Amino acid sequence: MLSPTVDAPDVQGVALKAYGRIAEAWGLTVREAAALADMSESTWKRAKAPQFAGALTRDQLLRLSALVGLYKALELYFDPPLSHDWPTLPNRGPNFDGQRPIDVMIEGGLPAILRVRGHVDALRGGL
Known about the structure:
The protein is mainly alpha-helical. The protein contains six helices and no strands.
């Protein structure tokens, strides 16, 4: 039996909608949300609209996917409001050196996003 194909615009639309809600929940500025998604501010503003016709790169889709996973992990590990505030709070942990996780992820790109997600997953798993 053949598996159904995934319509790329549908995947992009869902990813952008989810990321828009995450950026709002985390209280990110337009600049921060755009940089985290590896977009210009003007592209991010357009991408938030339901009729966005642009195409996301593979890197951008991977970032959004990892950020959705990070958001879910934070929701499972911390109670609100900490689950929403955690990315924007200074962190003295070994991966952050006093920086906010959001700044570490913006500066380090996809590899840093994946490290932060792994850090939170390890917290959840007790590793």
